[in-house]
Design a protein that fits this description.
With 198 residues, this protein is α+β, with helices and mostly antiparallel strands. It is built from 6 helices and 4 strands, in the order βαββαβαααα.
């Protein structure tokens, strides 16, 4: 089923994900890729007022939780980010082909409970992939190696427990994980009421 048209707003955050071309690993070592993303995210924050709550880089994709400014849409900010990252990675790799397999995929987050679930889902991505056993062990995450100015915590963190590290290291129940995964394939994040709690 095709995704609905993106609703652009500066009042709500978005989960954003993009995958590399053909789902291959990015063309340069992940450490170098991390520095490219950090640099470009900082430039995007400065030029487009993009707020970043969390960012995690994997071998062939990334996840972000972001909010755009009143002056620039998410589309403007993300088009700049992806084009600039692509140019930088291609330059370092000595390539000219596509870096990303398609456009970024945004999902609008409408309430703090959803924000909390997506925030945890993003940071647990390396754990779910079997790369580490605890979220704080994964280096290519703004949780552990910021490199960019993270958005100040506000009402979106209202349902996030104070003991965040312990909370992040408790895995989702299988049904809830699958529900979050499905909800992130939509233009607006929605989970059935019967599986809303962590």
């Amino acid at each position: 089923m095709a995704r609905k048209k993106i609703l652009y707003t500066h009042e709500l955050p978005y989960h954003v994900m993009a995958r590399s071309n053909n789902k291959e690993w990015f063309y340069i070592p992940i450490q170098d890729c991390w520095y490219v993303f950090q640099d470009v995210i900082r430039k995007t924050q400065k030029q487009y007022g993009l707020q970043v709550y969390v960012f995690v880089l994997m071998d062939n994709h990334y996840h972000m939780l972001v909010q755009c400014s009143e002056k620039h849409t998410l589309g403007e900010a993300m088009n700049y980010l992806q084009k600039t990252v692509s140019k930088a990675i291609n330059k370092k790799a000595g390539r000219i082909n596509h870096v990303f397999g398609g456009p970024y995929k945004p999902t609008l987050i409408k309430d703090p409970d959803s924000f909390s679930s997506v925030y945890k889902y993003i940071l647990r991505n390396p754990v779910t992939a079997g790369l580490v056993t605890q979220v704080e062990d994964y280096y290519f995450s703004t949780l552990n190696s910021p490199g960019v100015d993270l958005a100040v915590e506000n009402e979106w963190f209202a349902t996030t427990p104070t003991d965040r590290s312990n909370w992040l290291n408790v895995s989702f129940e299988d049904e809830r994980y699958l529900a979050i995964n499905r909800a992130l394939k939509r233009t607006e994040f929605r989970i059935a009421d019967r599986i809303r709690s962590d």
